Structures are given as C-alpha cells and as structure tokens.
Amino acid sequence: MQKKVQDIRENALEACKGANTVQKLNEARVKFLGKKGELTLVLRSMGQLSPEERPLFGKLVNEVRDELESSWEGREQELAAAEEEKRLLAESIDITLPGRQINRGTIHPITKIIDETKKIFMEMGYEIVEGPEVELDYYNFEALNIPPDHPARDMQDTFFITKDLLLRSQTSPVQIHTMEKKQPPIRILAPGKVYRADSDVTHSPMFHQIEGLVVDKGITFAHLKGTLQLFAEHMFGPQTKIRLRPSYFPFTEPSAEVDVSCIICSGEGCRVCQNTGWLEILGSGMVDPRVLEKVGYDPSEVTGFAFGVGVERIAMLKYGINDIRLLFDNDVRFLDQFTS
Ligand code: DAH
C-alpha cells in the first residue's frame, strides 16, 4: 500500500507540473486530492491494515497530501501569474501612436444669423415666437390682405398642398397667429423656414425669414426706422447706414424696402453692391389697418410696424458667400469655416 501511495505521489506531482492552465490544474487536483480522488480512496482503505501499521500509514498519507497541496498551490500561483502576464500583454496600449482626431461641430451660418438677430431684438424686449410651416391659405395670404387672384400672390411661387393648405411662403402669417391670440402691446420676432418653388444661385426652395411685429398705441414710422437702424448697426457694424425706399406690400401701408450701406465697400461702390453703395436687406412697413381689423383690433386705437428679413441674404452678405446652395450642401469644408 505504501508503494501505491508513492505511485500516486509521483503521478500527482507529474500531473501538477504538466498542467498548463488553471483549469487543467483544478481537474488534476480533483483526480488526486478530491473527495473521490486517488489519495482519499487510499486513506479510506486503511481499514485493511493492522492497527500497528495504521498510524504510520496515516502519517505517510498526510505527508504526501501536504506535499501535494503545497505543490498545487505553487503551480497555481505560477499559472495565474503567467495568465495575467498574457492578458496584460494582449491589452497593452501603444502610447507612442498619435491620438485619433475628434471632429468638432460648428454653428451653421444660418443659425448664427438667427441667433444674433434674436439677441439684438430680445435686448429690445421682443418675444421670440414660432408658427406652423404647413399653413392655411387664410394666414399666408387672405388675412394679410392678399385675397384670391391678387397679383401679389404671383411673386411668391407657393407650394400648394390642397386648395386651402400650403407650405408658408413667408413668416408673415405668424403676425396673424400672434394678434389673434393676444392683445396689444405686441413685440415679437418670429424666425423660421419658408418655402417657394424657386432655385438658383440666390434662391433655394427652402429658406429662412425673420418676421418682426410691433403693435401698440402710438407706434409710428419713426419707431420702425429707429429699430431697423439699430438692427443694422448691431448686425453689420456701428458705421452702417440705412436707407428706406418706398415699396409695396399688401399688408403694410406705407411700405418700405430697407438697404444698408454696402458692407464690402462702405458705400463707395463695388461689384457686390453693383456700384450703388447699397444692399437691400429687408421689407417693412406700417401694418395695414385692414390687417389690424381682420384680427379684431381697432386701427384708430393702435398702430404697428412690421418687417421681414431674409436670413440667407444676410448670411451671404456678411460671410461673402456667392452661392446659396453652399448653405445646404452640408460640406464640412464649407461649414468648418464658421468656428465660434
Ligand atoms: N413677407 C415679405 C416677403 O416675403 C417680407 C415682408 C415685407 C415682411 C414687409 C413684412 C413686411 O413683415 O412688413 O417678401
């Protein structure tokens, strides 16, 4: 039996040494030292020995067990260390590699102009409002004093959805929505998308306008002029002059188109201003009494002014962009130029 214990010892030590993974080592432990392992079974068969032999045999088995336990422990540590090293090597990072570049977004020039305009008017106490892009004919035309068959409809190549429903061709309908909901005093700014069936280097089927409306007791043309002068100075620089030219819009009377002194040549005359020294930037006027009546206001009580700015036009002038389509191509080489 002692020979058997020695054989188990040798086999076990060999298995221990030969195990090259933690899992194999555990399997070998079960085989030799487990509850039904070879060494345990030998110990159980001790009953066959004479009472004198038993203590000696017991001692031998215990010694072998201790020896095996400690070689298992040692081998286990070796294997764990080797596996850890392998893992660390596999996970190692080459810190000499250059970092990956992270692309940063920029604010779109259209958003920049809208944000800047909002800020200018919010400082004057205007409220920012929005209106629907799918609009009723009534709000886009009729309530703005443009009845069916009015020639002014021709100028706005409108996308109709049904006879009464359309994509708004201007932000002016927000004036009507606002006045229907509220009583004067009104001081609003309404930026948003508008749509017209038109496309070339200066026209896009979708573009942006910013509508302004002020209605209160005693609002005059002087208020309109002063407000627009301030807007021009903030948007284009303190030296900017404005010029009002008589014009016609069905929803304002009188109406004016507003020019700013050319921001390229400061009024000297250049290619951008076609040698006039002036650049047209918006349409405006005093709200027509018929528009006020349509929303239930009394034109003998209150008056108002309104204006509509083309955002793309301002962006193109301010940033020297010569093709409106660049604004919607989403080419990062173009957009990257508008940092901060
Ligand atoms: N809605 C006009 C257009 O798209 C622009 C405009 C002109 C708006 C005069 C106004 C205004 O509020 O008073 O051409």
- Number of separate domains: 2
What count of helical segments does DSSP give?
A: 11
Helix and strand sequence: HHHHHEEHEHEEHEEEHEHH
Q: Class of the largest domain, according to the CATH hierarchy? A: Alpha Beta
Describe the 3D structure.
- The protein is α+β, with helices and mostly antiparallel strands and 340 residues long.
- The chain folds into two domains: 2-90; 109-338, Bira Bifunctional Protein, Domain 2 (BirA Bifunctional Protein, domain 2, 2-Layer Sandwich), CATH 3.30.930.10.
- It has helices at residues 2-18, 22-33, 38-44, 53-91, 109-122, 137-140, 173-181, 221-236, 289-294, 311-319, 332-335, and strands spanning 127-128, 134-136, 165-167, 186-195, 206-216, 242-249, 252-261, 278-287, 303-310.
- The strands form two sheets. The protein has a seven-stranded mixed sheet, sandwiched between helices. Strands 2-3 form a two-stranded antiparallel ribbon.
- Helix 1 (2-18) runs parallel beside helix 4.
- The longest helix is centred in the first third of the chain and has 39 residues, at 53-91.
- The N and C termini lie far apart (88 Å).
- The mean pLDDT is 92.
- Residues 170, 172, 211, 249, 252, 283-285, 306-308 line the site of 3,4-dihydroxyphenylalanine.
